Structures are given as structure tokens and as C-alpha cells.
């Protein structure tokens, strides 16, 4: 099993993360629209100084391979993650989410994902999130309209 560690997200990882979020296959799976460089920089400048955002770099044997974060959205705390495609399917997302859940004691934590994103659903199931409901999520600048699953973790 690869050694997964979390480290506070810093600006040192942002260029690599920007490039990761441009990947077409990853965006198709997550049903997301990549941010422009300007929007990406603005988002992370705000997020990295927000005391309510817990953003952690995911390191695999000291190499940056993605991000996991908890953040306020729509009046609740949500979790999100993004991994570089070469490390998909190796249990890294599950390990990273569990590590962050051990660090962040806020409960409940909510997760929203495209219903078609089976891999992300498996990660959340393994981490104890429970299905709450499905609904059609309207299109935004970041997300196309899609059927969305909402999950919740209470423990």
C-alpha cells in the first residue's frame, strides 16, 4: 500500500494542481468545467487564507498527487478532492479522505458528486458517508447540469 500523507496546501502546489484540473477525462468523470487560470488563482488565493477552509495537499511518497479539502458551502461543510489521473484506482483518495476526516472534527460533513461518478461514490461509501438524496443540479460556471448525489457523514 502506498504511503499517503497530507500536508497543508500551499502555493508551491498550485501550478501542478491547475494543470491537473485541466485534464479532459477527469472533468468528464467529475462532471466539472475546468477553471480558467484567472478564476483558479482567485479561488485559491481566497481559499488559502480562509480559516474555515481545510485544504490539504495529498502526498504519495513525498510527491504531490492531489488535494482534499473541507470548506463551507451553502451553509454546510462540504468535502471535495481531486487526484492526478496516474494515481487513480489505488486507494489514495480513500486514504486521503480518511486522514482529513481524522483532522477535521466538524460534523456533519456533506459531499456532492455527479451520480455518474462511480469511483468517487465508492470513496465516500468506504469513508462512511451515507446517501441522502439525488437531484438535478443546475448548470453553473464550474458545473454543467447533471444528476447529483448528496451524501452526509455524521460520525
Question: Can you give a write-up of this model?
Answer:
- Helices cover 31% and strands 34% of the residues.
- By secondary structure, it is an alpha+beta fold.
- It has a single domain, classed as Aminopeptidase, CATH 3.40.630.
- The radius of gyration is 15 Å and the shape is globular.
- The model has no long low-confidence stretch (mean pLDDT 94).
Identify low-pLDDT runs.
none
Classify the fold: give the CATH topology.
Answer: Aminopeptidase
Task: Work out the strand percent.
Answer: 25-35%
User: Could you estimate the helical fraction of the residues in percent?
Assistant: 25-40%
Please name the fourth-level CATH homologous superfamily. Answer: Gcn5-related N-acetyltransferase (GNAT)
Tally of domains:
1
How many distinct beta strands?
7
Rg over alpha carbons: 15 Å
Residue-averaged pLDDT: 94
Shape: globular
Major β-sheet strand ordering:
1-2-3-4
Number of helical regions? 5
Order of helix and strand elements from N to C terminus? EHHHEEEHEHEE
Structural class: alpha+beta
CATH class assignment: Alpha Beta
The CATH architecture can be named as 3-Layer(aba) Sandwich
Most strands sheet: 4 strands, antiparallel
Please give the alpha-carbon distance between the first and last residues: 26 Å
What's the helix and strand layout?
Layout: E1 4-8, H1 14-20, H2 24-30, H3 37-49, E2 54-60, E3 63-73, E4 76-83, H4 92-103, E5 109-114, H5 118-126, E6 130-137, E7 146-153
Amino acid at each position: 500500500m502506498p504511503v499517503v500523507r497530507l500536508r497543508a496546501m500551499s502555493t508551491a502546489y498550485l501550478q501542478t494542481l491547475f494543470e491537473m484540473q485541466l485534464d479532459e477525462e477527469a472533468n468528464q468523470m467529475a462532471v466539472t468545467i475546468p477553471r480558467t487560470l484567472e478564476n483558479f488563482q482567485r479561488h485559491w488565493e481566497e481559499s488559502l487564507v480562509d480559516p474555515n477552509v481545510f485544504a490539504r495537499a495529498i502526498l504519495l511518497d513525498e510527491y504531490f498527487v492531489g488535494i482534499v479539502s473541507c470548506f463551507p458551502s451553502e451553509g454546510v461543510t462540504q468535502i471535495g478532492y481531486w487526484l492526478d489521473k496516474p494515481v487513480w484506482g489505488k486507494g489514495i483518495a480513500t486514504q486521503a479522505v480518511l486522514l482529513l476526516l481524522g483532522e477535521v472534527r466538524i460534523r456533519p460533513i456533506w459531499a456532492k458528486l455527479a451520480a455518474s461518478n462511480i469511483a468517487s461514490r465508492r470513496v465516500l461509501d468506504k469513508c462512511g458517508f451515507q446517501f441522502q438524496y439525488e437531484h438535478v443540479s443546475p448548470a453553473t460556471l464550474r458545473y454543467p447540469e447533471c444528476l447529483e448525489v448528496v451524501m452526509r457523514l455524521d460520525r
